[in-house]
Design a protein that fits this description.
Shape: globular
CATH architecture: Alpha-Beta Complex
Helix content: 10-25%
Number of helices: 3
CATH superfamily: Gamma Fibrinogen, chain A, domain 1
Order of helices and strands: HEEEEEEHEEEEHEE
Length: 147
Amino acid sequence: MEGEFWLGLKKIHELTYSKKYELVILMDDWEGYRAVARYSRFSVAGPEENYTLKSVGNYSGTAGDSLSFQVGMKFSTLDVDNDTHEDGACAVMYQGAWWYAVCHQSNLNGAYMRGTVPDFAIMMCWKSFKGYYYGLKTSRMMIRAIK
């Protein structure tokens, strides 16, 4: 599969609530380095819970854990503010829909920006890999059923 593709929260919920799934995230920087974040038990709640990130399980990999912070958070979009930030909508401030708290340690739906940028965390970023001032070249979230 090439290009941008989002499976959709409804489908992700249906899959991750019917069986146990792991999540693997691949991230590439602009210098050719790839980092991996693997989570042992990924699940997303349904629409009645605003697609809350229910579980990620245990972390392993080379990217560092920048997703566990968001467990328990509802999915926020530009027009639906489900975060816990009191002074604004994280999805608007950080230019993309995601599981925001106050606000994030990862944002794989942020603006597409190349490498080091002056703006704080508005781009596709993963804090524990390249920090808040670095726009990733690519990210890929993949789920796989586990036994």
